[in-house]
Amino acid sequence: MVIFDSVTKTKRPFEPIKEGEVSIYVCGPTVYDDAHLGHARSSLAFDLLARTLRALGYKVTLAKNFTDIDDKIIKKVEATGKSMQEITAYYIDRYLEEMAQLGVQRADIEPKATESLGAIEAMIQRLIDKGFAYVVSNGDVYFDTSKDPRYGEISHKVHDEEENLSRVAHNSEKRNPKDFALWKACKGEEDICFDAPFASGRPGWHIECSAMIEKYFDGNGEYSIDIHGGGADLLFPHHENEAAQSRCATGHELAKYWMHNGFVQIDGEKMSKSLGNSFFLKDALKVYDGEILRYYLNSVHYRNDFNFNEEDLLAAKKRLDKLYRLKKRLLPGKASAVNPAFKKALLDAMSDDLNISVALSVIDEMVAAANEKLDENPKNKALKKETLANLAFIDTLLGFGGKEPYSYFQIGVDETLKEQIEALIAKRTEAKKAKDFAAADAIRDELTQMGIAIMDTPEGTVWERA
RNA sequence: GGAACCAUCGCCAAGUUGGUAAGGCCGCAGCCUGCAAAGCUGCUAUUCGCCGGUUCGAGUCCGGCUGGUUCCUCCA
Questions:
Q1: Which strand (E) or helix (H) includes residue A242?
Q2: CA-CA 20 to 30 A from A306: which of A62, A249, A378, A446?
Q3: CA triplet A358, A360, A363: central angle to 5 degrees?
Q4: Per-residue pLDDT averaged across A179-192, rounded?
Q5: Does A39 score more than 70 pLDDT?
Q6: Which strand B nucleotides have any atom less than 7 A from protein CB atoms?
Q7: Is the dihedral of CA A33, A37, A43, A47 positive or negative?
Q8: C-alpha dist (Å) from residue A149 to A132, A144, A159, A244
Q9: A352/B8 CA-to-C1' distance in Å
Q10: Domain boundaries, chain A
């Protein structure tokens, strides 16, 4: 396995800190709103990473957190009158449900800030005790970036750019402009606060992740975890700050490898609420099947920016369709063993920093070759069984192609419509037998009008939702 | 203003030690079909934003330019 490390900006051979095991921590969502396509992409990218490492034989422990204490959540509390717990529980459920539709496997550990306050306070206290953090008059606790000589090494930001920092509003009690809050003291009566030795208040965003990583992973004395992941926008300041906190509190580095996924753009622009082009995953799922969205969103390398548009999505769907059409030709039947060369080619591609493009091309070629052989000999049982096994392997490694093909092609068609379609097809078959092609074609046109495509095969007429 | 990344066929997109351009969508021709659809076969970039340089040889390395995106502030 080779991984592109965002810190060194090179592909590095993956060597786990513990033989045969991989610890991964990915920054999850702040649960104050529905997940958008960007969350989906990040989730999908690291799902692919975990699946690939598992297929390679590693014992993977994936942690993905939920930030459930945050200013934006508090704003939502104020705006809706609901409790923080109600809001975060709702969006966590929504998130997990929508990611499940995309075929994202659940993380092994899903830490929440509210459940990690002890670890957070302990880490802040340790930073204060060691002199890396200081408390200001109102009770806020700040991390002193000037005390960490290696601050900036993760994101390669230069230290002294005072003039450029003027645009960042900052507390005048901060010793350095780049210092950031570890703990925000209570501001008023109705503020949401948690008790802590330094002041009643709540944790800053960055400390949550550092503390949760220390809580759940042992590391090896040199690093806490193998891989830390997240969106490209988290590299600075979030990950820089996390790394600094962990380094100063524990004396060792946070992660051996850092991985960052690219953005989802809509029409070439970053998706954001201010631009009015944000795209909620739940809305996309109303229109497109989760499996197709998964295939589409994963079809571009995770580090590249992803330009979401319907035309490309359609091309992705057609590609997936071909796989399922092949599957139709294989059933009913049982899978035998995966073709070794195919398996190796797929794993080799994914082992190269998750080269999904090559992996998909390997699959396309396998599909075409299988179709060709089936055209020559439709009863090639050994081939059918092996191909079925190949498809099962694709499902395990990449998370698509696992459905029953007829249900895949008939998503969204209810029973009454199904009966109607079957009846029309039966009528057309009769007309064809009677050589009444005009009538047969009329029925086919009618089906086309209904959005149904039909194909005559040696086994009879089959249909798909177009 | 500072920094980073990207620029390959109409569209999407691979291309890590420089060695002579994967795959998909679309399109065209053929096979198959009553006709279609599906499937298969063949064709479809002497060329990789532009200009220089290094080299026997560069999409791949170096320099410059242009264009696009991102980060520097909450953000996947």
A1: helix A240-250
A2: A62
A3: 115
A4: 85
A5: yes
A6: 1-5, 11-16, 22-26, 33-41, 68-76
A7: positive
A8: 11, 11, 10, 9
A9: 20
A10: 14-127+207-266, 316-404, 412-465
Q: Are A454 and A447 within 8 A, CB to CB?
A: yes
Our measurement of CA A15 to C1' B51, in angstroms, reads 43
| Mean pLDDT score, A230-252 | 94
Interval A377-392 mean pLDDT: 96
A13: alpha, beta or left? (left if phi > 0; alpha if psi -120 to 50):
beta
Which tokens is A416 given?
């009454």
Alpha-carbon distance of A413 to A409, in angstroms, equals 9
Residue A353 has pLDDT above 70, yes or no: yes
Q: If you measure CA to C1', which residue is closest to nucleotide B5?
A: A304
Between the CA of A267 and the C1' of B61, what is the distance in angstroms?
34
Within A352-435, residue ranges assigned H as helices are 356-376, 381-398, 405-409, 415-433
Please report the pLDDT score of residue A170 as a whole number.
46
Task: Give dist(CA A68, CA A70) in Å, integer.
Answer: 6
Q: What percent of chain A has pLDDT over 70?
A: 94
Distance CA A239, CA A229 (A): 9
Give Cα separations from A236 to A40, A257, A307, A437 (angstroms).
Answer: 21, 16, 23, 67
Architecture of domain A316-404: Up-down Bundle (1.20)
CA of A352 to C1' of B16 (A): 9
Token readout for A301 is 């390398």
Q: In the predicted model, what is the mean pLDDT of residues A149-175?
A: 65
Q: Which residues contact A101 (CB under 8 A, 6 or more apart)?
A: A285, A290
C1’ B13 / CA A296, Å? 12
What pLDDT is attached to residue A162? 44
Distance of CA A435 to the CA centre of its chain: 53
Contacts of A160 (CB under 8 A, 6+ apart): none
Nucleotide nearest to A13 (CA to C1'): B16
d(CA A364, CA A79): 50
Triad A360, A363, A364: Cα angle to 5°: 90
pLDDT of A276: 59
CATH number given to A14-127+207-266: 3.40.50.620
Quote the pLDDT of residue A165.
43
Instruction: Please state, in angstroms and rounded to a whole number, the distance separating the CA atoms of residues A39 and A261.
Output: 10
Using a 10 angstrom Cβ sphere, with 0-12 exposed, 13-18 middle and 19 or more buried, the burial of residue A242 is: buried
Peptide bond into A237 cis (omega under 30): yes
